[in-house]
Amino acid sequence: xxxxxxxxxxxxxxxxxxxxxSSSAHLVLVPxxxxxxxxxxxxxxxxxxxxxxxxxxxxxxxxxxLLHHGLTARGTREAVLFWYLVAATVPGALAGxxxxxxxxxxxxxxxxxxxxxxxxxxxxxxxxxxGRRLRQLGDITLGQALLIGVAQAFAIIPGVSRSGATITAAxxxxxxxxxxxxxxxxxxxxxxxxxxxxxxxxxxxxDLNLPFVVGxxxxxxxxxxxxxxxxxxxxxxxxxxxxxxxxxxxxSVLAVVVYRG
Length: 261
Prior knowledge:
Order of helices and strands: HHHHHHHHHHH
Shape: globular
Strand content: under 5%
Structural class: mainly alpha
Helix content: over 70%
Largest sheet: none
């Protein structure tokens, strides 16, 4: 793999993992549009490791508090949130385990990716504008956390977007934008970690080459910046810009599919 490809795909992963635009969709579409060969499993692992570094670096203090309370201080707000996050992780983990083969083959068609970009974009718009804005992070119930976790499971389909699905579900449940976004990012930590661990078993020392290192570094740096940007952005703005981007990209992909026949 060329270093330039590694840099571009690292940027795509870092932005797409945390902005509600679907990193998996972009990782399918960029090579498809430009005729690049499949970067392979090792580079896919590099990108996941990079975004794991990003979310841990941004939220490590939060996770230390959540872990401490979750394991030693039952009944506190932080302990409850910790166990809700654990419960919400289960649907996504099960989907990843049961549908892994489909995720690597059937789900990666440009037609499906373009369609899901549009569908989730429309649903995100409706959820963001019609959803109530009453609940903060500490107001989330177990049932709501599980529903958000179920939404995360659908992100195994490229084009859905893990952050897009979880934020959309949270907004539909009446959780305000910043709380929905923060819960989505916290929920991403165990699922990204699990995906990376599952793939690491197939990596050898020979795979740890320069493109691998570049992919990790670029996706980590970009992901860290994307997290901070979105958390600040949603304090004063809605998700419209991401909705319009998803619609434009999805329609463009469908047009290319039709054109290429």
